[in-house]
Amino acid sequence: MANSKRQLFQKRRMRVRNKLRKVNVGRPRLSVHRSSKNISVQLIDDVNGVTLASASTLEKDLGLVGKNNVEAATKIGATIAERAKKAGVTEAQFDRGGFLFHGRIKALADAAREGGLKI
To answer: Is pLDDT above 90 for 73?
Structure first.
């Protein structure tokens, strides 16, 4: 029986996460979630199980509610880089989840790099 789209997504997600666990050297994980309408990102310290910083298009003060394009992802990437600096984080592991690295995910990662976050 063929796997469903959701099952394939979960397999990709776990494959990426397991590779990150093997190569991670104590750096926080920059985890991205993308839906059809929004995108959110969290900077997670897996050792202590704590979220250090987060950003989302659902935050009203960013003015991106309902915008699901590359420009919104770019703003979120810049915002998370700024918030990571405030939290004292300069390096992170990029966890794209089961999402392919193109479009909004790539725009977010590039903006975070431009903002000074080493990924």
So the answer is: yes
